[in-house]
Design goal:
Elements lengths: L2 H6 L2 H6 L2 E5 L5 E6 L14 H8 L2 H9 L3 E12 L7 E6 L2 H14 L2 E10 L5 E13 L13
Antiparallel strand pairs: 1-2, 2-4, 3-6, 4-5, 5-6
Length: 154
């Protein structure tokens, strides 16, 4: 199955009817269309924020996993700024900045781990960025186990 098809058939994306607009072979560019369906509409008749968060969450990690294979990659944190209503189908646009790729490669070479924050957005059909995403991705050696703090619960 092609990477494009695998992404569209990723269960949450398939249920939301996400379509791949553009997917570079090297993973440096990922553009997806999120349709404004009856199920995706909130009470204001705009795109439900949970749909936007769901499509935005794995994208930077997917890109890093393709560019830096052999590492465990996961979203460590994400923040969403809903700038304007998502009143149409939305297009997620992620491009790997060359300076980010260089910084991550340097961290992996020097420390065998990296944490990087990416900024990208969801755009309405009129070209307006309605949602800005800040997504922090952790890239760790395979088999990495985070230290777990023991919490005392009274």
């Amino acid at each position: 199955m092609s990477p494009r098809r695998r992404l569209e058939w990723y269960p949450p994306f398939w249920l939301m009817r996400v379509k791949v607009v553009e997917l570079s072979e090297d993973g440096r560019r990922i553009y997806l269309r999120l349709p404004l369906t009856m199920l995706a509409r909130n009470m204001g008749n705009n795109m439900f924020g949970g749909y936007q968060a769901s499509i935005a969450d794995p994208i930077a990690a997917i890109a890093c996993n393709r560019i830096f294979p052999g590492y465990s990659v996961f979203t460590r944190a994400m923040s969403i700024d809903f700038l304007y209503p998502g009143s149409s189908d939305l297009e997620l646009r992620f491009d790997m900045p060359p300076e980010a790729e260089e910084a991550i490669a340097r961290d992996l070479r020097d420390k065998d781990r990296s944490t990087h924050t990416f900024t990208y957005g969801l755009y309405r059909q009129d070209g307006v960025m309605c949602t800005q995403i800040e997504n922090t991705v952790a890239i760790r050696p395979l088999g990495y186990k985070a230290a777990i703090k023991k919490r005392h619960i009274p």
